[in-house]
Design a protein that fits this description.
The protein is mainly alpha-helical. Among the domains are: about 25-95; about 100-125 and about 135-145. It contains five helices and no strands. It starts with 12 loop residues before the first helix and ends with a helix. Mean pLDDT is about 85; it is low at about 5-20. This is CKLF8 protein.
């Protein structure tokens, strides 16, 4: 008597989801042409200037400059992180996160802490401390206020975006 061979094929939803999630990331070229995108790039470039101008000095001898370094480096790293998220449109893949609220909190906290750091930076710069580092500290103070104004602008745009989402 002949034996019958039965082959059963099943497909799992895991492999379908895996292949869908491993697709290439999108790239939003238009983000850098928006005002928030331009402000974000400016924050990254000038924030880098703030902390490199201080890092090139003996800032660790003065606790006030340590605070400025912390704020500048912390928000520089987070701004780069958020730029990557917005450029790759990762936020569309994680809809559970309230991105407008996250952006508002991030930019608002960056504005407040950068404003405090810029004021601390400006009030700590004196020729009495160290003539050699005076120019670097003065320049970092100037750029810290410019970065603060960029974060203020992005806070405004984040608020407008958040407000329009909550009214819907």
């Amino acid at each position: 008597r002949p034996r019958s061979h039965t082959v059963t094929t099943t497909s799992s939803s895991f492999t379908a989801n895996l292949s869908a999630s491993s697709s290439t990331l999108a790239y939003d070229r238009e983000f850098l042409r928006t005002v928030p995108g331009l402000l974000m790039v400016t924050e990254i470039v000038l924030g880098l200037l703030v902390w490199t101008l201080i890092a090139g000095t003996e800032y660790f001898l003065y606790p006030a400059f340590g605070w400025v370094m912390f704020v500048a480096v912390f928000y520089w790293v987070l701004t780069v992180f958020f730029l990557i998220i917005y450029m790759t449109m990762t936020y569309t893949r994680i809809p559970q996160v309230p991105w407008t609220m996250v952006g508002l909190c991030f930019n608002g906290s960056a504005f407040v802490l950068y404003l405090i750091a810029a004021i601390v930076d400006a009030t700590s710069v004196t020729k009495d401390l160290d003539n050699h580092n005076y120019n670097s500290w003065a320049a970092s103070s100037f750029f810290a206020f410019v970065v603060t104004s960029c974060y203020a602008g992005n806070t405004y745009f984040s608020f407008i975006s958040w407000r329009s989402r909550t009214l819907q």
